[in-house]
Structure formats: C-alpha cells, structure tokens
Amino acid sequence: MKLLVVYYSMYGHIYEMAQSIKAGAESVEGVQVELRRVPETLSQDVLEKMGAVDMLHKQQDVPVCTIEELGQADAVIFGTPTRFGNMCGQMKQFLDATGKLWMSGALVGKAGSVFTSSNTQHGGQESTILSFHILLLHQGMVVVGLPYTFHGQMEIDEISGCSPYGASTVAGPDGSRSPNKNELAGAYFQGEHVAKIAKKLAG
Ligand SMILES: Cc1cc2nc3c(=O)[nH]c(=O)nc-3n(C[C@H](O)[C@H](O)[C@H](O)COP(=O)(O)O)c2cc1C
Probe ligand 1: pick from 20, 82, 91, 122, max atoms within 8 Å of CB? Predict the structure, then answer.
C-alpha cells in the first residue's frame, strides 16, 4: 500500500503540516508513505522578491513528484497554500499535466484528500480545499476529508485551522505563526484516516 503526500510550500507551513500528515499515515500498518513536492514554476527573480528562496532551499531533499508515481500511488494527500481562495499555481500546473492519468483512469477509486494553509482565518481555506475536490472527482478519486471524530475541530479557545474538509493552519497576516499543536494533530489524524480508508478500498 503506497500513499503519496504531494505538496507545495513557499514559506514552510504546508511543509510542516505535511510531516504530520506523513507521520499519521505511517502509523497505519502496511502503509508506505512518501513525501513529494511539485515543481516550482516561478522564476528565481520572483522567488527572491517573495522572500521564498531560503525555505525552498530547505526542501531540496524532498524529491519532485512525477506523473508516473502519482498514477502508481494507492492514495494521495495533497497539500497547497491558499492563493486567492484556490490551490496554488504550482500545484495546478502539475495537475494540469495529469491528462494521461485521467485518460487511463489511473486514479479512479483511489482515496484523495487535501490540506491547506492561509494567512488569515477566513481567507479561503475551505474554498481552497473544496475547489480542489472538484479536480479529485474528475480523476475519479474517492474524496476523504477530516471527520469530526477529530475533536480538535471543535477548538474555539484559541485560533485554529481544520474543518471537515481537511486539516489546515493559519499562518498569520505576516506568515510568522507556525502550525499549533491542534492543527498538527488534525494533520496527523487526516493522514491516519486516509491511510485506513485506502486500506479498506484496496479490500
Ligand atoms: C499570491 C498569493 C495569494 C494569496 N492568497 C491568500 C488568500 O486568498 N487568503 C489568505 O489568507 N492568504 C493568502 N495568501 C497567503 C498564503 O496562503 C500563505 O503564504 C501560505 O498559506 C503559507 O503557506 P506556506 O508557508 O506553506 O507557503 C496568499 C499568498 C500569495 C503569495
């Protein structure tokens, strides 16, 4: 059973959440989990202006995902920062190259799930995940969210991401907030939940 965590992270929030997603999925016996990033599409000049170079450099050891390995996975959990309430362009560009998988039905019947991050609390986390689900459905994937059995979802004592649609973190207006314990627990839960469902789907 092979589960892929495929993500893009410019400033590290999604990268950190991805580690927790991976740990959760790995806690399920017989599930092998691999972390993959999608290719960068912005120029070095733009990345420098966005202050993204150092963080992207830290992720150099994470292999770039190929379309072939995406098609071979038994389940995929996608992580993307919010960009104007949608997935980021890097992720979209990568997925726009999966026509071959769509044609062959390579992802049909496999679990697909999404987690995200945004600067502001109401800046589009839910729309990012839900609009991403449309693509998963076109690929015939079985959409998996983050059920309320993850009780951290009821958290209102402090700022926290996570919704029934998927785990999420709030990076703060200047991006300086790191994922808190509750958000990382939501990510872990989602990883474990998807892995368990993937095993059931494999029958
Ligand atoms: C072009 C652009 C658009 C963005 N749009 C939104 C947005 O609609 N809502 C929001 O709260 N944050 C928005 N952000 C902030 C990012 O979502 C935030 O930097 C990201 O979640 C941090 O994740 P990362 O550290 O993994 O890159 C935007 C950032 C950029 C660069």
Answer: 82
